[in-house]
Amino acid sequence: MSVTIESTAATDLVRKPPWYRSLFLQLLVAIVAGILVGKLWPDFGADLKPLADGFIKLIKMVIAPIIFCTVVLGIAHVGDMKSVGRIGVKALIYFEVITTFALLFGLLVGNLVRPGAGFHVDAQTLATGAEKIAKSTKNGELPHTVDFLLNIIPASVISAFAENALLQVLFFAVLFGLALAKFGEHRGTAAGGAGGVGKNSPPVILEAVDHIGKIFFTIIGWIMKLAPLGAFGAMAYIVGQYGLSALSSYGKLIACCYGAAVLFLLVLAVVVRVFAGVSLWKLLRYIKDELFLALGTASTEVVLPRIMIKLTEAGCSRATTGLVIPTGYSFNLDGATLYLSICVLFLAQALGVDLSLGEQITAVGVLMLTSKGMAGVPGSSFLALSATITAIGHGSIPVAAVALLLGADRLMDSMRVTVNLLGNCVATFVVAKWEGQLDSERMRKVLDGEEVPPLEDKDPMVAYTAEEA
């Protein structure tokens, strides 16, 4: 009976839904409707924020257990501590190289375009800047590097899940998966088999994690039916609350950031083509639904489960996807780092200050550290900029000057989430290829839109994918 059910799910996996049920079309309509509502009825649009907040909370509710199940199953099937360690190390090396390049590239663009030159500085804004920033950041602060690394270790397993601390959940999942692989190896040896977790009498706990994963992906399938509603509420709130007037005041800065993002994506296109043989254009078409959902809600977390599914379906091993994507959400914020380096120069130029090469290098060094602790911190971009300005120590740039960016910050969300999401997708393909865990033939067929058989080891994802179809 179970074989019949799995075969039906596999058939549903490749059947395309009718055009009117396309998530891409629904999100497009929802985003346009949200912009119109926010523009025509700004007060009403601002009141629609709970729609977006509710949808995002529903997604976050199941992210931690999905990461746990995916990582545990991936590592348990790999069953090799050295392989898992290599994936982690290679991912961190890649993250550091790319984010450092993003910072330097942002400085280059900022020096060439000079987005802050001629910007009118409002003295009243500077006078009340401290209060505005404190309200935006909720008087918080970014963790120091040592604290950030120590915080990866949870106080308890339960607290990691209760607080939805993704890096802590990932840390525990890696340990649990390795222990499970070791346990399965001992079972296989004791039973006279070849060892390993996969096919030689897997422990009951592995089957339990497998079934729990199916349950949570089914829940995700239900929640995703509300995605257009969440995108509509988020876009109506952003336009209604902040308006589009900032486009005229911050036009040069916005154009600089978005132009830099396009150029940076071209660099990523070269990287992923050379090192993984992947076409970025085809990848964009493949994940267009996720991109629109991230753009509409101004959040990459809401697409984390979907993007893990799609990258696994496109040939990346489950272990690589499970390790690289959640880690990248904290360590590989390419869009955020690109934005921050441009903003440092914008503030200096707006106040008529020319930063020396040494001061710019200092800014890069500080941002390299502060950008790693930004995920999940309210007003993190303002906190990172405040810390950078303080470290530069230039008396002509008060920390309160960061308040100049309040009018444009939300308009940068689209740039940040797009580059962050694509940056982590590229990282997954590159690391998978680097580690020899990328099925290049399957990747080519999936990105070309050809039908492929469902992955045999992707059971937890079948229920959700079939539900979506």
Structure write-up:
- The structure is a single chain.
- This protein is mainly α.
- It has helices at residues 2-14, 23-40, 42-46, 49-78, 81-113, 123-127, 129-137, 145-150, 157-162, 166-190, 204-223, 227-242, 246-249, 251-276, 280-286, 288-297, 304-313, 318-331, 334-350, 357-370, 380-392, 413-434, 440-447, 459-468.
- Residues 1-14, 188-201 and 457-469 have low confidence and may be disordered.
- The relative contact order is 0.19.
- The chain is built from 24 helices and no strands.
Condensed summary:
The chain contains 24 helices and no strands.
List the helices and strands and how they pair.
Elements: H1 2-14, H2 23-40, H3 42-46, H4 49-78, H5 81-113, H6 123-127, H7 129-137, H8 145-150, H9 157-162, H10 166-190, H11 204-223, H12 227-242, H13 246-249, H14 251-276, H15 280-286, H16 288-297, H17 304-313, H18 318-331, H19 334-350, H20 357-370, H21 380-392, H22 413-434, H23 440-447, H24 459-468
Helix pairs in contact: 1-24, 2-12, 2-16, 4-10, 4-11, 4-12, 4-18, 5-14, 5-18, 5-19, 5-20, 5-22, 10-18, 11-24, 12-16, 14-19, 14-22, 16-22, 17-18, 18-22, 19-20, 19-21, 19-22, 20-21
